[in-house]
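Handout, page 2. Input:
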Amino acid sequence: MKNIIQISDKKITTRGGLIPILKHIRKCKIPQVIRSCVEKRPFWSTYANEDIFIGLAMNMFCGKKRISQIENIRSKISIIPGLKLGSHDTLGRALKNLATKNTVVETFNKRQQQFIKATINYNEPLSRLLIKSTKRLGLLKQGKSYTLDIDATFISTKCREAERHRKYKKIGFSPMVCMLDNIPVHVSLRNGNAAAALYLKNDIEKCLELLEESNVKVGRVRSDATGYTKELLEYLDEKNIKFNIRMPLNKCFKNLVSKLKECDEWKRTVIETSDMIWDCDIASFPYVMHDTTMKGRVVCLKVPDLETIKEMESEEDSQRRLNINKKMLELNEKGLLNTEKKTFDNGWVNLDGYNYKIIYTNDFESSNEDLIYEYNKRGGCERCFEYLKQDCGWKYPPFSEMSENNVYLIVLALAYNIFLSALMNFNKYVKGLDSKSRLPKFIDFVVDVSCLIINDNTFEFYPIGEKIDFEKIC
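Output:
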C-alpha cells in the first residue's frame, strides 16, 4: 500500500514548552527590568536588548550550549508569538556592546618573586540587572536575611586574553561568583593568573551595595580560607554582618597554635552531613586576628591522625570508629551520601598528630556544632558551578575579550535563574518533575512538547506520554 504524505502549512513547533516560559518571563516583567538597567540599542536596531537576552535564554532552554547553535533552532521556534530571535552574529554584536572596561592590578608574587599583572572585569549595569531580575522572578524575598556565599571557579579556554591558572596549570578565566541560596546574584571575571583573594573585598562590597539597592538583606557571609583577610573581615564586622570563614593554619600562626595546644575545653561530638560522618572533638575560644582589634571566635574540629589513633585508641573508641565506618559504608551502598557535593573532608591541617579544621567567626551566639553545619552548606556552590558549566554553557565562552565573555556569563546566569523560577512555579503541574530537577530533565518534560499555534493567544499542546496541566502554567 502506498503511503500518503501531506504537507501542512499549520504553525507547529516541537518546542511548545517555550510558550509558558516566555509568558512567565513577561509576567515577572523581566523585559521592563532589562530596559531600566541597560542602555538602549540604537533606534535603527531590529532587536532590543530584551530580545537578545531572551533569545540566549531560549537557546539554553532548547539544550544548546553555544551561542552559534541558535541557528539550529531559530526557524523552529521563531513562529512562537512575541519571540524575536536574531542570528548568532546579531546576538554576539549586541552582547559585545554591553562590555565594560577591565581593571588591571599589579601584585607581587612571593613564590615567583616577581610582579604579576592580573585583570578583573566588573559589569555593574548587568550585575544590577541580575539582582533585580532575580528578585522579580520570585527567587529573592524582601525581609528575609540571607547568607551570601562567595567562591571562584575555573573555565578552561584559549580565548586571546586568557592566562594560565597557577593551580590548574591551564589557560582560562576564573569567575568570582556571589550566591544567595545557591542562586547566582553577582559575577565578576578575572584572568586565570589572578589570586583568588585579589580584590575579594571589592566583589563583596559591590554585591552588597547592589543587594541593598533592591532591599535584599544579607546577614551572614561564608567563604573558604581565601576570605581570611583583615580588610574584608573588618568591613563585614563594621556592617554588623556575621561571617563564617575557614581559617588557614600553619606554623606562622604561632598565637593560634599555642591556643590550640592550651585549650582544655574539647568536647566529643559526631558531625553528620549529607556526605560525611565525623567522630571528632570540638572546641571554641576567643581570638583576635593579627594587627586588628576586632574580637573574633575560633571554632575548631580535631581528629587524631592514624598514627595517633593507634597509640591512644581505647577499645571503646575503636568500636565507635568501626560503627561509624560501617554506617558510612551502608549509606554509600544505598546511595544516600551526596557524593556530588563539595565534601567537608577538605581543608584539614595536621599539627602534632591531630588534624584540625578551623572556622573563624564573629558570631558569639550560635553553638559550635551549628556554626560547623552552617559553614558546610557552602558546598552547594560547587553544584551551582557544575549546573552553570554543564547545563547552561559557561564552559564555552564565545568571545576573545574577557570583558565580553563576562557579559555572556552574566546573561547566562540570568537565564539559569529564569529556569529556577520556572521550575519553582511549574513543577507542581508537571508529573515527574520536582523542585530539584536539573535543566535537561526540565527540557524533556516541559520544553519538548509539540504545539499547534492557532493564533497569538490560542495554542493546542500535544504532550505525548507526559501529564502537564498547561492551563495552569500558561
